[in-house]
């Protein structure tokens, strides 16, 4: 594999990820749509998290299919399903069983696209520059986070949610067109996986990674799901402001200092990165002004900017090449698991206590989870005496 990072497949995959990501990132406003339909915070958490049910359930199949049949067919199928799903949102006018069913289908399409596109990128990144390359690729996923909230603000400020869903479908269609030009890396089909799905993902060297990835994804739910209703209820800041600072910071870090984890070691960089995320949640809990919301976005952006590519690279490095699809299915699936568990639980904290309590609880979970990971991973990687 060439040592060059910016190969044609890498750039095309980044473009497909960006356009697909725009369709996804617009959905930070989706709780507002549910609120307009009369949903409570708990119901919003359930509906948003419901997509994770199908997403998690389909992950084993996606992982095995990638390892056996390649990446491209799944990328095309996922994009087609995503476009159709976004158009069907136009038919939703009340909270009933149909919206839960649609969220399942939407979760399925997102599961396929996130898993396969990120695995595709990992196939084309040189091993010596893995964290830097995956961090750079992650910019394509962070830009939508910066722009999605702002674009959503503009669309909903001028039009309604019908136009909003059409805009999302347009971005998804662009991702489909770009994906038609993607072709798998030559080494992908060299050998079939030697072990079953469960065996390939339950090694002691991987289990601590699954834990800390779940912690990370759980706390992301605090603002990806509930920032919209927090802003609407308190009148402090805006969704677009938070995510502009959030993603803008992460993007600048990845473009200018993306080499740091490779230089100092991914595990050594992970702790400080996640503590920045925790600090951002504390600031958000205490926020009384737009500037505080912006500062929270900046701190959380530093945390996300490093944490995601570090965990991504550790997963790719620790998994067998022939089982990379299975490992990436679990890694990306844990973000859905975090939403599925975090949405309802954090929604209950808001309902019983307050937004402040919810954000502080999420911040504390980061610290506790990081401590458990440090102990567990050290034990998992220690050589066994013979």
Give a quick precis of the structure.
The chain contains 16 helices and no strands. The protein has helices spanning 8-25, 30-36, 41-69, 72-88, 97-124, 130-158, 161-179, 197-201, 207-224, 227-234, 239-257, 260-264, 266-286, 290-318, 324-352, 355-381.
Fourth-tier CATH superfamily name: MFS general substrate transporter like domains
Low-confidence stretches: 382-386
End-to-end distance: 38 Å
At the first level of CATH, what is the class?
A: Mainly Alpha
CATH architecture: Up-down Bundle
Shape: globular
Please bin the fraction of helical residues: over 70%
Largest sheet: none
Structural class: mainly alpha
Question: How are the elements arranged and paired?
Answer:
Elements: H1 8-25, H2 30-36, H3 41-69, H4 72-88, H5 97-124, H6 130-158, H7 161-179, H8 197-201, H9 207-224, H10 227-234, H11 239-257, H12 260-264, H13 266-286, H14 290-318, H15 324-352, H16 355-381
Kindly list the characteristics that best describe this protein.
386 residues; mainly alpha; 80% helix; globular
What would your notes on this structure say?
It contains 16 helices and no strands. It is globular, with a radius of gyration of 20 Å. It starts with 7 loop residues before the first helix and ends in a 5-residue tail after the last helix. It has one domain: Growth Hormone, Chain: A (Up-down Bundle). Helix content is 80%, strand content 0%. Helix 3 runs antiparallel to helix 15. The relative contact order is 0.16. It is mostly helical.
